[in-house]
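SEVERITY: medium
COMPONENT: batch folding queue
REPORTER: lab tech (J.R.)

DESCRIPTION
The queue accepted two submissions in a row. Attaching both inputs and their returned structure tokens so the on-call engineer can compare them side by side.

ATTACHMENT 1
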Amino acid sequence: MDHHFDTRESRDPRQRELDLLGHLPGLIAKALKAPGWRKHLGDVDAAAIATRADLARLPVLRKSDLPALQKATPPFGGLIDPVERFGRLFTSPGPIYEAEARQEDPWHAARGLHAAGFRSSDLVLNTFSYHLTPGGFVLDGGARALGCAVIPAGPGNIEQQIELIRHLHPTAYTGTPDFLKILLDAAAASGVESMIRRAAVSGAAFPASLQDEIRERGVDAYQLYATADVGVIAYETSARAGMVVNEDVLVEIVRPGTNTPIPDGEVGEVVVTTTDTHHPWIRLALGDLSAIVPGTSPCGRTNRRIRGWLGRADQITKVKGMFVRPELIAEVGRRHPGIGRLRLVVGRSGEVDTMVLRAESAEKDRTLEAALADTLRAVTKLSGTVEIIGPGDLPNDGKVIEDTRSV
């Protein structure tokens, strides 16, 4: 379990960083051949993007903007050079259209499955969907790259899957954690002995209570953090100490609604840049919240780690009939450089929506409160009150807008 997929996983972190950053000029030059990236990135000198600070000056591309981009410029928003050829095309809710490259393990899942204990001797029951969305193929390709045989079961069809478990004796599982529990329950109720001993789960929450239950039933389950656009971004290891970022993926954590990276340990939005020239992604903001875990994993893998999925960064809410977005709260902060973190708390008083802007600042006076209230009104077109609190007093949970009306 503890030996690594390859020597890249345990290399000097400085060498990995040099390799990742060394790809940026060529990656951006390649992307700029596509009209969508040229429009998005603007007049950028690809050769000048050589550090994380250089990269952070480029605009993020929010995943939530992809449906409109792809609708305006079919099929992929002008972000893929049309001369590229792909093996499969998919669609995900949004709709967002994705393309699979013609290569082994195109979604880079094998490394994460290997960390979960998958080996060539395993027969994998893959319950992710193979219909239109790429989920099934992401794990299928990774498992077969490891030499595993795969049962393309897809989700649902419980009785048929129990027959598969009875007859074929799969030893490994890929799918959502809740469906794994459903299968184990159904097998037990049917008197079928499950031989599944390891699992890679994704696509749904995996709370500690469910982790404990799955473990007690003899299955060693590990989480993968993946998206339909990028593939596997990070994966859990035997250390159970955060999720190790996949090789060839550069992860940033930015303050929601901004382009700005935040310090390690602080919760913000996940932004990824990949070195895959078949389908380059440059600062794709996924809309998920996470945080960098300082240090390296006890398992010996030296890449950066994230805490896993901590919620959604797309905290758009409607106040008095108008949408308020994290970007607007970030704009308030930009107009007051001495301010720390901000949080807009939306509530109700009687039948009226209310807004309270909580602002971290060492300076506490009525003048600052009034100035922030004026800026809040100018930016959002809505009135609200301001509460000045001390530096670091806001919870480290990535929330920029907190809607308490449903509480």
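ATTACHMENT 2
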Amino acid sequence: MRGWAAFNAGLSPDNLGKAIDYFDQAFRLDPNNLRAVQGKAELQLLGLEALGIGATHGRDILESGGAAIDRVLATQPDNAHAHLWKGQIAKMQDALDVWLAETNAAIASDRNFAGDYAEKGHYMIASGRAPEALEFLEQALRLSPRDPARNIWQWQMCNAHAHLGQWEQAIDWCQKSAATNPTLFWPYFELAASYAQLGRPADAANAVHELEKRIPAPSVALYGRLQDFPDPQFRSERDRIMEGLRKAGLPER
């Protein structure tokens, strides 16, 4: 419970580190505590995906996290959280069919679990179906408006609007995401691109400056690597966002 309390204080490297330490303590006290096993796996994967924590050890995290999640599902096959994170692992391994299947399994297991709907919204963006993403992301925010992960969901709303070329709406949602949790770097990519596409260079430059304060050496190429799914519609939309980043003055590499 102390681990989840640390995470619920807000998504940041410090809070994730504290939460994982608590889960480690719980596991040492009881090696059969599956909630501690699952909690650590989920937060390591979240740190890898959303914050880049442990990126140099990404393969190890995916393997150990996958084994932990499979252990939970072996005894709790209807565990919605475990299905959600099995889908997250599949996403990070480019197994998009498994990602969708596990996300649907999570929704079937718990139709009130907001994270499931947010994840399906992300799948819709990645599969070139951004208009459909909005419904799922709105559902997530309705179900859990104070959720610790809502800043990610707000960014995904921004991302969906950016993929649709709806730059004003993208700015609105990315500003909400940044206000909810200023440590998250993702919104500043789409903010910079959206301002640039609307012909607002000063605002675009400020967004680039804020991005540079949060991650080392951001670039157009980095955004392309971080946002890389095989669907041709997705890539066409992503390329338009990348063109906005170039207009904003973000370095190519």
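NOTES FROM REPORTER
The mean pLDDT is 89.
No errors were logged for either attachment.
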